[in-house]
Amino acid sequence: MWQQQLLQLRERSRGFHLITTDIAAALAQFKPINIGLLHLQLQHTSASLTLNENADPSVRDDFEAWFNHAVAEDSGYFRHIDEGADDMPAHIKSSLLGTSLLLPIRNGQLALGTWQGIYLGEHRNHGGNRHILLTLQGD
Question: Which residues pair with 135 in a beta bridge?
């Protein structure tokens, strides 16, 4: 069985944000399945999705610090700057991390590891609302 819905996330500040509860709440709207896969597709090119540490917020702060160091704004060689100094670095960060995740479902729930959480990487200073297309497949 295939099911699909579009989830709109509220605007968040720049950085890495746990959205596991948002995804779990959206999953609860689907007809329950015992086993399957949930595909998440973030429909933006200046934000990202990743799965990582869900307990210590300093991990998310360190992610933001590292990515800002690795892909610095105002580097001088970016030509795509009409939308601001944060725009081209946001596109690169989005490509490095990706915009989709494929997650296992067991007994109708996300089957994540104990310390795993879903991050939205907001790479713009003012990215606005973000949309994630959830596609659920399973029995």
Answer: 4, 39
